[in-house]
Amino acid sequence: MNSYLDGMRVTPQENMVSHLPGDQTIELVKGRTSSYGENGLIPPAAAADRGAFTEWDRWVANRVGLRTAETAAVMNASGLTSLRFQAWRR
User: Fold this and answer.
1) Each residue of 15-33: pLDDT tens digit?
2) For residue 73, what is the enclosing H or E element?
3) Statement: the pTM of the whole predicted model exceeds 0.85
4) Are 7 and 1 in contact (CB under 8 A)?
5) φ and ψ of 48, to 5 deg
């Protein structure tokens, strides 16, 4: 993820769903960069340098893999089968 003063660009390492303000959700596709500004999703930029962040992407992928393995080990040790969080609103 790159962030700027007025927006950010996200390239997910795996498919996921993003929850945006106003109960809006969008699907993010692994490896596809999405850009966001103050008014939401911005159309894809023209040509981006796909190799510029290769080392960073590799580091992030390794960290995500390590975190996933550690989470699975803790869940297994505690007998949990899923991570579900309920947000309570007043």
Assistant:
1) 988 887 777 788 889 988 8
2) helix 54-78
3) no
4) no
5) -105, 150
